[in-house]
Every structure is written in structure tokens, then in C-alpha cells.
Design brief:
Length: 166
């Protein structure tokens, strides 16, 4: 009697995906991989909550679309886009690993992320900010220099925080 191969559940597939991080790992890749795992866990929870199939081979495009629609209704589009990428990578991995013949996400388009320009301080707000940095002490002079550097260069906070020798 031949024994049938057990079909992987979404959760088991997630564990398999988790056990195979990128080969040439960098901090960025590890962070991306962890983000993808979180997206898969959320997808698995969504499927279970909605009574949808948890076996990877039974997941269809409409299940993924329902998950993405739910994300778009409750989160920012960038979050839905990130979760889409997680699922896309997972199903690509399932196809490459032989668990699926084709991805249920074949020909799906990721959710659009609308351009959201950052808030910009007005002239009066800038004057008040610089005035708050006035003073003869080290902290005031340092803060003033940092604010002026940000204003003059357009540098982001994260870029400034990574500078050495400032």
C-alpha cells in the first residue's frame, strides 16, 4: 500500500519557508525575510478566521484577493503592498519547491501605493524651531547646527543619524 504524501498546510509551508532564509544573507535580507514570515502568519490567521482553506494546494486567487482587500480596508496601502510581496514570494517558493504547479497569484498586480508627500513646516514654524535652538550652550548650538543641516541639505533624519563625526 502506497502512502500518500501529506499536503502542506499554510502554517507548515510557512515553517518550511522560515527554515530556509536567503543564502547570502545581509541585515536587509534577514529583515525582509522576517517581514515576509509575518505576512504569511497573518495570511494563515486570516484564512482560518474566515473558514478558508489552509492547505496550500487549495488556496486560490480569490482567497489572496480577499486578504489583500481586508488589509486595504484596515491598513495603509503600503502595508497591503508589503503583505502582497510576502505572499508572492511564498507562492513562488512553493512552485520552485514542487508543492504547487502554479501560483494562485499568477498575473495578480500588487496594490498601488499612492504618493503621499511628507508634511512640510511653514516659515513661521521654522522660525520658532530655530528660535528654540538659540543659546550659548553646547546642546543649543548642536541642535541648531543639526536643524540647519537638515534644512540646507534635505537630508532625512535616518541619514543624519547614521553620520559619523557630527
Amino acid at each position: 500500500m502506497t502512502r500518500r504524501k501529506e499536503r502542506p498546510s499554510c502554517e507548515a509551508g510557512c515553517r518550511g519557508f522560515e527554515s530556509r532564509p536567503p543564502l547570502h544573507t545581509t541585515t536587509y535580507q534577514i529583515g525582509t525575510h522576517n517581514s515576509y514570515l509575518e505576512g504569511l502568519r497573518l495570511f494563515s490567521m486570516f484564512l482560518a478566521d474566515k473558514g478558508m482553506p489552509l492547505v496550500v494546494a487549495n488556496i486560490r486567487r480569490e482567497h489572496v484577493e480577499a486578504f489583500i482587500a481586508d488589509l486595504l480596508a484596515n491598513w495603509k496601502p503600503a502595508t497591503a503592498h508589503n503583505r502582497y510581496r510576502a505572499l508572492h514570494g511564498f507562492f513562488r517558493w512553493c512552485v520552485a519547491d514542487g508543492e504547487l504547479k502554479a501560483s494562485p497569484m499568477a498575473n495578480m498586480k500588487p496594490p498601488a501605493i499612492p504618493e503621499a508627500p511628507p508634511d512640510v513646516l511653514g516659515e513661521d514654524q521654522l522660525r520658532r524651531l530655530l528660535r528654540a535652538c538659540e543659546g550659548p550652550g553646547f546642546a543649543e548650538r548642536r541642535d541648531s547646527a543639526l536643524i540647519r543641516l537638515l534644512l540646507d541639505t534635505g537630508m532625512r533624519r535616518e541619514e543624519l543619524a547614521g553620520r559619523r563625526g557630527i
